[in-house]
Amino acid sequence: MRGAGTPESKRYVQVIELRRPYFGAPASALGFILLSVVSARAQVAPDAPPAPPDVADAGDDVDIEVGADAPAAPPPAEPLPIAPETAPAAPAESGQAPPVSAAAAPDAVVGAAPEAPELDAEPTNEGAEPASAPGPGREVPAQTRRGYFRPVGRGLEQGGYLQAQYEWSQLSEDELLQGEPVNQDGFVLRRARLRIDHGSQFTAATLEFDANTVNGLKVGVRRAEGALIWRAPDDTAAPWAMLSAGVTDIPFGAEIVESPRHRVFMERSLGSRALFPTEADVGAKLSLAYGPFAAAVAVMNGEPLDGRTFPTDPNSAKDVIGHVAVAAPIGAGIVIEGGASLATGKGFHPGSPASKDDLVWVDENNDGVAQSTELRGVQGSAATASENFDRDAVGVDLRLTVPTPIGETQIFAEGFVANNYDRGLLVADPVLSGLDVRQVGASASLSQQVTQWGYVGFRAAYYDPNSDLFEQRKGRILPVSQEIWTFSPVVGASIEAARVSVQYDFVQDSLARDEQGVPTDADNDQLTARLEVGW
Fold it and tell me: What is the spatial distance between Cα 7 and Cα 302, in angstroms, rounded to a whole number?
């Protein structure tokens, strides 16, 4: 029974007394009831009750539903006026456009929060990510922005989303090349993901499946990891320590862990995808988070997903990848955060088997008759051993988030320098080329949320897969530039759990040749229009 003398007990008495039938009661009894009601109303505190705690966003790829283990909501109380600044953020599937900061939202949610009363106040620009979009004066630790440092919920949670899109490319042709179609104009199921999370006091597990039709229908595991955790006193914060193993995210930079569901732009920048073709690898990872500081270090196979499955690691050496981050609220809802990353490991150059001497006929005159002058001898070769080579990369990133009257503004920049680390575009193999290959990449973007329904953004990305490349033209050794610039404006809008976005990529490079054989810009711009629906 509620304690006597508290505002809650007085409100409880009020409700009970008002529901008693009093018609036909003696005048004295009726007077006593009315006196009790008036007294209870006079003593109820006029202050608003504290707003319920924010629910962390599902982050990478899912909006998590509350599991059966979540605490039940308290009994409904009589609604009182609530000041607009204390209003809780809207639920994740509120029909608002994802805020710009939602790109790197955490991976899981914490348990349930009490249902918030409906307010007449104007919606805030937190949008769908209350944990990622701070209000004025709210301190934001680094782990609320990065997927490595995610809150871990309790109980069983599930969710998912689907992204279907139409793609157009200037490279598209109605032709076949080595049996594969050159056409790139058409509809594609980019992602269809289903995720299940389970958390308890000391353990957590995640299983996520992905299906797509990018290169034919493929269904596989996107994430599958188990973890031992040391929880912080507040479950809405990331655990102080988390040791996970399995198929897990690669802790390099901030862009690689942006949720595809909430990312402002369609995909990661070209340089990021060249070094890390996918966001996950098989290995073990230790994550630490305390206040505004966070760090993660992982030991991984170094063989990311190749489109169908995780390939077997061909060498015994493992890649060591680490990331540190810090966030600093600087007042009025403005948050600045930055990080640094380091990766080192060994790549693999496959050897070749021994071959025998051979005889080859080349029909030079196309008469179908073998002549002595058309016979060629091919000398056999000895077997060559496989070799490992060193590879490493270092990167930095910076993000500034500023609330504005029409929505959240975000400025983001990331850059890296790597050595023999390209594994997705022009694969680096210094054993084959005889020289180490140096990669340089950077990207910068400006994103603006436009009210609760839309957003716009612009990104400029640079990538050079070989900064020390030369070639011979007309007997002269000349430097050759393989640098690629991509300029990407994007516009999008959302309603409930759906989002529609359109992005055009202006690609500037020197990968084509003119009539004289001089490098020139290739016609390879592309357009993507996407519909995303989640649950």
Answer: 61
> Cα(442)–Cα(297) distance, rounded to whole angstroms?
23
- The DSSP 8-state label assigned to residue 102 in this structure reads G
Residue 11 has which token pair? 């409100």
* 8 A C-beta contact, residue 262 and residue 105: yes
**Whole-angstrom distance, CA of residue 299 vs CA of residue 320:** 5
pTM of the model: 0.71
Nearest to 252 by CA among 400, 421, 109: 421
b/e 192-211 (16+ beta carbons within 10 angstroms → b): bbbbbbbbeeeebbbbbbbe
Tokens encoding 531: 């519909």
The closest of 181, 182, 184 to 167, measured between CA atoms, is 184
Q: Where are the beta strands (DSSP E) in 271-353?
A: 280-290, 293-300, 319-329, 335-349
Q: Please state, as a whole number, how many other Cβ atoms lie within 10 Å of the Cβ of residue 238.
A: 30
Asked if residue 441 lies in contact with residue 269, where contact means CB atoms within 8 angstroms, the answer is yes
List of residues 6+ apart from 533 with CB closer than 8 A = 161, 162, 497, 498, 499
**What's phi and psi for 143, nearest 5 deg?**
-70, -15
Tokens 């509350």, located at residue? 66
CA distances from 176 to 180, 218, 241, 487, 523 (A): 5, 22, 52, 29, 19
> If you search the block for the tokens 């504005």, which residue do you land on?
404
Per-residue pLDDT tens for 58-80?
A: 334 433 333 334 344 444 444 43
Contact 249, 106 (CB under 8 A): no
In the beta sheet, which residues pair with residue 214?
216
Compute CA distances 77 → 54, 73, 85, 190, 278, whole Å: 20, 11, 21, 46, 49
Alpha carbon 427 to its chain centroid, in Å, reads 24
Cα 275 from Cα 269, distance rounded (Å): 11
Please state whether beta strands 293-300 and 319-329 pair in parallel, antiparallel, or not at all (unpaired).
Answer: antiparallel
| Alpha carbon distance 241, 198 (integer Å) | 17
Count of Cβ atoms closer than 10 Å to residue 451 Cβ: 15
Q: Residue 98: what pLDDT?
A: 53
Rounded to an integer, the average pLDDT of 207-219 is 91
How far apart CA 187 and CA 18 sit, in angstroms, is: 62
Q: Is residue 45 over pLDDT 50?
A: no
Q: Which of 269, 300, 268, 302 is nearest to 284 (CA)?
A: 300
Token pair for residue 470? 């030369």
